[in-house]
């Protein structure tokens, strides 16, 4: 694909230097459909980024778009804070019937604001309010958001430094596999437990532990089910609330609707955002056990927590993709397809590829040289495929195709990836 440099002058003149994705993908995108984006010069791109996981059902999904257009056409309520609306009632009823009850989950649902970091902030605040404690344990490689509370439980030094103030009341522990000698061994929380029981350890009794079952921004680090079960048991023994951040890996990204289902655990609190609206509209949820619902009216609020168009598309997504088990089966099958290709790439490039890993439709290829990952993503873009890097050093090429990607589209994208690896050094 020959890509001419588009006119970027207005972005460079007016937009902050904080912008990032546009630097790796120097195109001006104009429209999108399904697994494809189209720029204003007529180039087509396969999208294995999917809005950082916010577009699990693809761009402008026709079923969700029809529901949204019908709602807007009849002048349905757009903004309502936390007032009761028919759109919210339909969503809550559907979420209960399609997601919660079949999984025997009795969570209360809170709408904390439009973004994932809003959900994390609500979860941290609630855990501290319930327990009367301040410390929250997080893990190496974690990413939980860009607001101050979420940054305090995020591992990335670059992101943390942007806060400009001390980030307090958080303690970091090693994630599963963080130490090389952990791999292949039974989960061992003896060190963590010793710190909790030793009055000389210097760690205050935590209010909660927050964890991603698969770390997306951290480099597609996958926690083993037995490790997650061990963590849940540790939390129960020491009266710590277990928070699962399912913002990127929830809504079917790893196969089941919730990423923690495979491990058979039941978190006390769950955060959801990104693909919960189904259409890329801002929306987030904070779910928690009913006995934790100690909020006073208005104690945590936000102007845009009642995004009714998002309720409409979310409801349509639940009934379209989660009323039966087909989406989960397809996602796992597509994941097998990715794994087979990445295995071949790793075998062909043993000196360059450190490892590959993933679950469902979240995968990463780790390179020994972080710059190699950047070059692979750049070359893939030149060939019409959007990929991003992740990991502490940007050493992982990350694949997040839509759950609705077809076998042929997946094959095409994986072929471009394999070719990009061959064509870079």
Automatic annotation (TrEMBL):
<dbReference type="Pfam" id="PF00202">
    <property type="entry name" value="Aminotran_3"/>
</dbReference>
<comment type="pathway">
    <text>Amine and polyamine biosynthesis; ectoine biosynthesis; L-ectoine from L-aspartate 4-semialdehyde: step 1/3.</text>
</comment>
<protein>
    <recommendedName>
        <fullName>Diaminobutyrate--2-oxoglutarate transaminase</fullName>
        <ecNumber>2.6.1.76</ecNumber>
    </recommendedName>
</protein>
<dbReference type="GO" id="GO:0045303">
    <property type="term" value="F:diaminobutyrate-2-oxoglutarate transaminase activity"/>
</dbReference>
<dbReference type="InterPro" id="IPR005814">
    <property type="entry name" value="Aminotrans_3"/>
</dbReference>
<comment type="similarity">
    <text>Belongs to the class-III pyridoxal-phosphate-dependent aminotransferase family.</text>
</comment>
<dbReference type="InterPro" id="IPR015421">
    <property type="entry name" value="PyrdxlP-dep_Trfase_major"/>
</dbReference>
<keyword id="KW-0032">Aminotransferase</keyword>
<dbReference type="InterPro" id="IPR015422">
    <property type="entry name" value="PyrdxlP-dep_Trfase_small"/>
</dbReference>
<dbReference type="InterPro" id="IPR049704">
    <property type="entry name" value="Aminotrans_3_PPA_site"/>
</dbReference>
<keyword id="KW-0663">Pyridoxal phosphate</keyword>
<dbReference type="InterPro" id="IPR012773">
    <property type="entry name" value="Ectoine_EctB"/>
</dbReference>
<keyword id="KW-0808">Transferase</keyword>
<dbReference type="InterPro" id="IPR015424">
    <property type="entry name" value="PyrdxlP-dep_Trfase"/>
</dbReference>
<dbReference type="InterPro" id="IPR004637">
    <property type="entry name" value="Dat"/>
</dbReference>
């Amino acid at each position: 694909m020959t890509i001419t440099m588009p006119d970027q002058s207005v972005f460079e003149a007016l937009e902050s230097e904080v912008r990032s994705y546009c630097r790796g993908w120097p195109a001006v995108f104009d429209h999108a459909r399904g697994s494809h984006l189209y720029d204003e010069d007529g180039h087509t791109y396969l999208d294995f980024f999917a809005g950082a996981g916010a577009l699990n059902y693809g761009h402008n999904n026709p079923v969700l778009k029809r529901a949204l257009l019908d709602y807007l056409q009849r002048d349905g309520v757009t903004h309502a804070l936390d007032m009761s609306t028919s759109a919210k009632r339909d969503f809550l009823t559907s979420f209960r019937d399609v997601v919660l009850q079949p999984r025997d989950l009795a969570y209360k649902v809170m709408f904390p604001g439009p973004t994932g970091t809003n959900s994390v902030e609500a979860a941290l605040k609630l855990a501290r309010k319930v327990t009367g404690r301040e410390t929250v344990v997080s893990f190496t490689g974690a990413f939980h958001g860009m607001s101050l509370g979420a940054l305090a439980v995020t591992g990335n030094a670059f992101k943390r430094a942007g806060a400009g103030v001390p980030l307090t009341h958080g303690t970091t522990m090693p994630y599963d596999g963080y130490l090389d000698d952990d791999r292949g061994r039974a989960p061992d929380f003896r060190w963590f437990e010793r710190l909790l029981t030793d009055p000389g350890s210097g760690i205050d009794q935590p209010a909660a532990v927050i964890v991603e079952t698969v770390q997306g921004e951290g480099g597609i680090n996958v926690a083993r089910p037995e490790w997650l079960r061990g963590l849940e048991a540790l939390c129960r023994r020491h009266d710590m609330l277990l928070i699962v951040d399912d913002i990127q890996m929830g809504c079917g990204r790893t196969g089941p609707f919730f990423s923690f289902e495979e491990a058979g655990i039941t978190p006390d609190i769950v955060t959801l955002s990104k693909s919960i609206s189904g259409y890329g509209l801002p929306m987030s949820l904070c779910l928690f056990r009913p006995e934790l619902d100690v909020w006073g009216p208005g104690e945590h609020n936000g102007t845009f927590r009642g995004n009714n168009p998002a309720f409409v598309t979310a409801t349509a997504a639940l009934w379209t993709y989660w009323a039966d088990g087909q989406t989960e089966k397809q996602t796992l099958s597509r994941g097998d397809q990715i794994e087979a290709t990445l295995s071949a790439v790793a075998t062909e490039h043993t000196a360059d590829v450190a490892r590959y890993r993933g679950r469902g439709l979240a995968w990463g290829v780790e390179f020994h040289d972080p710059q190699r990952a950047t070059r692979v993503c750049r070359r893939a873009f030149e060939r019409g495929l959007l990929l991003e890097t992740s990991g502490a050093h940007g050493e992982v090429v990350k694949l997040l195709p839509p759950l609705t990607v077809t076998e042929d589209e997946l094959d095409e994208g994986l072929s471009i990836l394999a070719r990009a690896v061959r064509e870079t050094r």
